[in-house]
Specification:
By secondary structure, the chain is α/β, with parallel strands linked by helices. It has two domains: about 150 residues, Rossmann fold, CATH 3.40.50; about 140 residues, Glycogen Phosphorylase B (Rossmann fold, 3-Layer(aba) Sandwich), CATH 3.40.50. It has twelve helices and 13 strands. The protein has a seven-stranded parallel sheet with strand order 3-2-1-4-5-6-7, sandwiched between helices. Strands 10-9-8-11-12-13 form a six-stranded parallel sheet, with helices on both faces. β1, α1 and β2 form a beta-alpha-beta unit. The longest helix has 30 residues. The radius of gyration is 20 Å and the shape is globular. The two termini are about 20 Å apart. About 45% of the residues are buried. The mean pLDDT is about 95.
Length: about 325
């Protein structure tokens, strides 16, 4: 049995590459061999080098159709694949992998995903139809989960929580800001932070797309600018701060994994869900600058308690990821009633 993995891989996004490593670890822990795993990637050579997994071009549908067989498994995810806020064709593209697998008699597991936002009616209909045909759907939050048949639906924490962190830095100082290109006015938040007097560092998780913005803001405000080359390096970087302000979901997850309190910038419902789960504050509007200042002061005053709370929560989430994944594959492979 081979497992084909479809997701946003091969683009140099640290969060998605982290998810691929987490999924690989879960599959191997379950009993699959490394040579049974195949990744559909934008950069197959990079994926093979970084993750030591077989890979081919994610747009090569003919090869997928030729290689996937009855009894194989296609895993769509983890990540936020079925949304059209980053591109109108994303849902159709990822759905094409799943429909080809179903056509060949393979099982399809939608795993570790957040659904939406989906604005276009045609995409909504397409995703709803796919969810009804998938073998099992395992979501990481409740957003749009009403589209999934109840008898096919499970929930999991983000799979990244199962990864090993290593030693967490004992020396912490300042605030790390993980930014991204989005509709938010990042500079208004930076001005508030500069006035508060904390040491600040800008961080990009996708340097190819964000380097120009990072250099510009770094020069404008006289701030260090870091571009970690992989998720393990990003974890080490985030563990050196007293507080992280994140505009990327996995910057917040990595902060939690290093027991670093954080404030989420809620560009997507999945960010709000994570912040509520871990009892951390978040902003939904760039105009909330007064609340922003208050959140920072509160975290700095209660830092030890906040950090210890994250440590306890992360351990619970790590075990839940494992148990839900095991149950999911047992259901798919007929090992559980």
């Amino acid at each position: 049995m081979r497992v084909f993995i479809s997701g946003y891989y091969g683009f140099g996004n640290l969060g998605d590459e982290m998810l691929l490593d987490a999924l690989r670890a879960l599959l191997i822990e379950y009993g699959f061999r490394r040579d049974e795993l195949v990744v559909l990637s934008a950069s197959p050579k990079e994926t093979e080098r970084e993750h030591a997994l077989s890979s081919f071009k994610r747009g090569n549908l003919l090869r997928l159709f030729a290689e996937i067989k009855r009894g194989d498994l296609l895993i769509s995810g983890p990540g936020g694949l079925f949304q059209d806020s980053t591109g109108p064709w994303s849902p159709a593209f990822y759905a094409s992998h799943a429909f080809l697998a179903l056509l060949k008699g393979a099982k399809v597991l939608i795993y570790g995903q957040s659904l939406g936002p989906i604005k276009r009616r045609v995409n909504l209909l397409l995703v709803r139809f796919l969810l009804s045909k998938a073998s099992l759907v395992v979501l990481r939050d409740e957003s749009m989960s009403d589209m999934v048949p109840r008898n096919k639906l499970l929930f999991t924490p983000d799979p990244a929580f199962i990864l090993s962190v290593g030693e967490v830095s004992g020396l912490r100082d300042g605030i790390g800001i993980v930014f991204r290109r989005w509709k938010w006015d990042l500079e208004s938040l930076l001005r508030v932070l500069v006035k508060m007097g904390f040491p600040l560092t800008l961080i990009s998780f996708q340097a190819e797309r964000e380097r120009e913005d990072g250099i510009r803001l770094s020069k404008m405000y006289g701030l260090p600018f870091l571009t970690p080359s992989n998720w393990a390096e990003a974890l080490r970087v985030l563990s050196t701060f007293k507080l992280v302000i994140g505009m990327r979901l996995h910057s917040l997850i990595m902060s939690a994994m290093t027991f670093t309190p954080f404030i989420g910038i809620s560009y997507d419902p999945k960010v709000r869900s994570l912040c509520e789960l871990l009892k951390m504050p978040f902003l939904e509007s760039p105009r909330e600058t007064f609340a922003f200042s208050g959140y920072i002061r509160d975290i700095m005053i209660k830092w030890d308690r906040k950090s210890e709370g994250l440590k306890c929560e992360v351990e619970i989430l790590r075990e839940k990821v494992r148990s839900v994944f095991t149950r999911s594959l047992n259901l798919l492979l007929g090992r559980e009633a």
